[in-house]
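Field: sequence (string)
Field: structure_tokens (string)

Example rows 1 and 2, in order.
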Amino acid sequence: MTATATTSRSVLRQAISGQRRRVTLASVLAAGHQGGEALVPVIIGVVIDQAVDGGSVGTLVFWLAVLGVIFAGLSYSYRFAARAAEGASLRAAHDLRIAISRRVLHPGGGADKGKLAGELVNIGTSDAQRVGVVNAALPFGIAALAGVLVSAIALLRISLPLGLLVLLGTPPLLYLAHLIGKPLERRSEAEQERSAHASGVATDLVSGLRVLKGIGAEPAAVARYRDTSQNSLKATLRAARAKAWHDGAVLALTGVFIAVVALVGGHLASSGSISVGDLVAAVGLAQFLLTPFLIFSWVNGELAQGRASAARVADLLTTPVAVDSGDGELPSPATGNVRFTDVSYGSLRGVDLDIPAGQLIGVVAADPAAATDLLDCLGRAGDPAEGKVHVDGVDLSTVDPERVREVVLVAAHDADLFEGTLAENVHADGRSADEALAASAADEVAAALPDGTATAVTERGRSLSGGQRQRVALARALAADAPVLVVHDPTTAVDTVTEAKIATGLARLRRGRTTILVTTSPALLAVADRVVVLDGGRITGEGGHAELARDRADYRAAVLS
């Protein structure tokens, strides 16, 4: 599965083609099962005509043995057909999840545009599973068709009108079932969208629970989730009603069709056109036909839901990337000279900035949006609408985003920790990061924990305080030792003494490496080689921290207030 899928149909086709061997095996075995089931009433009719009416014990034993062989085959074929179909379903869903994960994690980004994290998770789990189920439904749909064909052939041998009735009546019935499934498809898509949105809101609320409690906003958060959840519930109930109506309508149509077959068979038997054994076979086949038509109903419902989910998956997989890959190459090793030339992006307007390699620079942005836009340009989360960003003379917009992020590491303010030990959060490969821990004052965090750096950290670092999480996240950024490190407000949750220690440690550890501190922290700005002021999306001043604090009232208001 790749991101080239453009429609729900193409997603379904790729999900099926990826498991063609398993689907084919399941289809053959399931068709054999349904065909064998259709033969049972036919053989019972033969037993009645040849053994019971004739009084032959030998013939009766022979046909009973034949029935035993058929039932053994039925048991084997159904069990292994179900196994192959379920395997195809699970593997297709797994392949879809991998494709969705790759798209979400693509260096070019863009997949999360307009979507909450919970929505992406819902698409990668529930929707992927529903698309995968199509691989389980399709073989049994083929098997049901095989059962109808065997029944029709058997009925043709018994009576031409009965056979023609089944052969000619099945296609219109299937078409009506398809039309009945359309409302279910629409409502299933709405159900998944509302469910995904509810999951996204819940994820956001849980991740920000401490903040909500701190500002007393729990009632507003609960009210927001209640509204979202109610909308999701309404969509789910509408989908459930559509499914109930769909299943009931298909069952009613099927019942009427089978009743007509039985009535025609009874009329033919009463007129002497068919034997008693043929009548038993015809009635048995009419009853058997209920199973294939119930399967058709189930398959049609699964296909309707699968198409709805496939549309959501296709929409995600075909979301354009935020930035394209390029053929430009950054030098290796990179020295870290950064230059903005007349850059306009988001709230940035004509930014010109030259940062020599090895310099530690502070950036004070009055507008938080300008700080975020600056980080996006440096990490190539977005390309400037105008102007260029160069690193070591190479235009970043021409370099693959993954390579850019090997050279320019952007440590965002809201960086999350991961489940694992503190040491694993700082250095995933387990290497020592003592210097980074000391420079970020995260060694004090480790010392306060029961098992030091081997202490387990829960998801998103919720077992740590806000200040502890910040220090561990900063240690992780420092341990990467990137040629260019961009850090955004890394000390907002720590006390002033710790902040001063971090400032000294960071400057010492990053000496000779390009470092950009986007912050309003006086302690961090004081250790910078120079400070740039960004106001109204433009650079309005630069100089040393002490100089700017003395001469500029707006700087003092932003930094010292």
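Row 2 begins here:
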Amino acid sequence: MKKFQYKLITLVTALTLMTTFSCSEYLDAPLENQILAEGTDYSQSQNMVLLLNGAYAELYGFQWETFPLISVRGDDANPAGDQEPLFKTDTYDYDRSFWIYNSTWLNMYSDIIYWNGAIEEIQKYQEAGASASKASQYIAEIQVMKGYNLLQLARLWNNILIPESSDPNALYDVELTPYNGVMQYISDLMDQAMPSLPNVHPNQRSDIRGGVTRYTALAIKALANLEMENYQGAADATGAIIESGEFMLETDYYQLFKIPGKLNNENILEFQYSDYGAESGTSDRFPWQVYGPQAIGWQPAVPGSSGGWGFWEPTEKYVKFMLDRNDRKRLTTTVLFTPDGISDIESDPDYANLPNWVTNITPDGDTFGNAPRYKFLSGKHYLPTTQLTPGRFNYGENKNMIAIRYAEILLVHAEALVSGASSSAMSADEAVNAVRSRANLGMLSGVTLDEVLDEKFAEFGMEWGVRFFDLVRHDRTSELNYGGRTFQEGDRFLPYPLDQQDILPQLKEASNQ
């Protein structure tokens, strides 16, 4: 987990303030950020970009536990492994003392505190004569990152704190902002950022390829308005992205989530990692081992390639849903089968005769055998061992993590339209059928909300909790009652982490109401 720390740039070197705090103590003492700030020569304007680079490092550096907590409660994903409170979270039995709740809270808030400080420092460079346009752009990019984290925090915890300074002690005096207020804040923040952002596809940026652009801000604005059920606002934002002509769906859905999919024309927000094409040395990588197979039964096509923890698996419900649709391309991309998983499906008389393309051997020759922790694994978190840089053997190394794709923009656009919005950019039928065409499925006419949500279920299995957020937003939570689970009113949001309630009185007060 991230230790809470504050970073500042001085001269040409990125320095880290070495004051760190345990997860439960990070608000107990002020951060001594003035020490470095007072030693910075702000006339050296060429160093301002280091603050932006550090901001991206924070965005890409979230810890392994954050994604599972965001994504675990939908009917597309199951936890696996040894974290019993995560299994309970998946069944809506929440333990406020579970370390992953506290760690995820800290991971995201430490980013936001850092980003606030980076903005403060950039403003000082600007006051000392640095380019106003560059300073405005860097601040706008960081605002988009902040908006993304706030979106995830609110989706998890409902009413949250919105820090506006780099001093974590200031959180003592921040009032909780209600859910819709957070979403409106994000929407307004994206409006504020957009005029200063590059008006290009992220992969067309010449300075930071794959970095934040106006379209990243529009996408986050759309998601925030969707959560507010401001469907016209969501349609307007997604419509602007569609009308730009900058994005297109990748025809090869399988490779989209592999090395060929890095900085793809479909990707709007992408966390970037690299081994720099070298067989050894520095490697910045996402913790893909969380989603990799246990050593038992793992037969990689490239001998010596490592597996992982086996902490994450698609649900049998999702597999059957995709089989019923004959949704082969997306199912074989999203789900990695084991022999036991195939046998479990076939034990149901309705699925006794599975097609021969349901196999535990991937198109790239990696074999997934039986293991104690899972029956299936996530194909979207899988990188073929044949795509590893020669000499590298870590599971998934050099693979990026896609956060927002154009397919989501199309289907959010359709969701907004069938929920009452209007748009001249594209009809709901056109948006849904564009995604279905890529999946080699037939075209629909007069699409309904149920059909849009089904398409999102198929398209975003194992991705960022999309399914869970869709179902609770539209009060279709009966779909979450499967495999012995019972979703009840009040299960939408997690309790505030106990460690944070002990530190921040406003959280404890809200929890006791």
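free_text_note (row 2): The CA atoms of residues 1 and 103 lie 6 Å apart.
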